[in-house]
């Protein structure tokens, strides 16, 4: 358990920072902003699959109060928020598997499916 509300906020924000870094690098490779490296891509996909399990724990009751970009809706519609976080976990697990196969088209599809979760959840639950 977190000792303070701020610790919960910092925990989830740290997880999101690591997610954005790893996911962003995969995006850069797929967009041709840097060379595609299958090994690095697969490593990042594993990281994203693991990291996607972390943030939810930081959305503790009362941690809508603090230095956070999370909207109050996270807590008033927690079941939907939880379901969206679980969908991200599922899709990034599938992406990690796709990243180990030699099928670039399937890999791109799995990446886009995962990215949809990021954007979809931000649109509903994050301040802009
Ligand atoms: C990223 C990042 C996000 C998502 C989102 C996908 O790299 O930081 O929040 O991808 O832009 O649509």
Structural classification: mainly alpha
CATH class: Mainly Alpha
Do you know the CATH architecture?
A: Up-down Bundle
Number of DSSP helical runs: 5
Which regions are unreliable across 5 or more consecutive residues at pLDDT < 50? Answer: none
Question: Any idea what the radius of gyration is?
Answer: 15 Å
CATH-level-4 superfamily name: Cytochrome c/b562
Ions, cofactors, ligands: which are bound? ascorbic acid
Rounded mean pLDDT is: 98
What's this, in brief?
By secondary structure, this protein is mainly alpha-helical.
Describe it.
By secondary structure, the chain is an all-alpha fold. The protein has a single domain, classed as Cytochrome c/b562 (Four Helix Bundle (Hemerythrin (Met), subunit A)), CATH 1.20.120. 68% of the residues lie in helices and 0% in strands. The protein contains 5 helices and no strands. α1 packs antiparallel against α2. The mean pLDDT is 98. It binds ascorbic acid. Ascorbic acid (ASC) is lined by residues 20, 23-24, 27, 115, 118-119.
Topology of helices and strands:
Layout: H1 5-30, H2 38-51, H3 73-76, H4 78-98, H5 104-125
Ascorbic acid is lined by residues 20, 23-24, 27, 115, 118-119.
List keywords for this structure.
elongated; binds ascorbic acid; mainly alpha; 128 residues; 5 helices; 0% strand; Four Helix Bundle (Hemerythrin (Met), subunit A)
């Amino acid at each position: 358990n977190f000792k303070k509300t701020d610790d919960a906020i910092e925990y989830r924000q740290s997880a999101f920072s690591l997610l954005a870094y790893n996911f962003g690098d995969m995006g850069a490779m797929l967009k041709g902003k840097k060379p595609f490296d299958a090994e690095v891509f697969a490593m990042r996909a594993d990281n994203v699959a693991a990291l996607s399990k972390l943030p939810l724990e930081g959305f503790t009751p009362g941690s809508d109060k603090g230095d956070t970009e999370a909207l109050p809706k996270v807590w008033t519609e927690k079941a939907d928020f939880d379901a969206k976080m679980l969908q991200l976990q599922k899709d990034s697990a599938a992406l990690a598997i796709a990243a180990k196969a030699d099928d670039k088209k399937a890999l791109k599809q799995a990446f886009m499916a995962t990215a949809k979760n990021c954007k979809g959840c931000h649109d509903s639950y994050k301040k802009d």
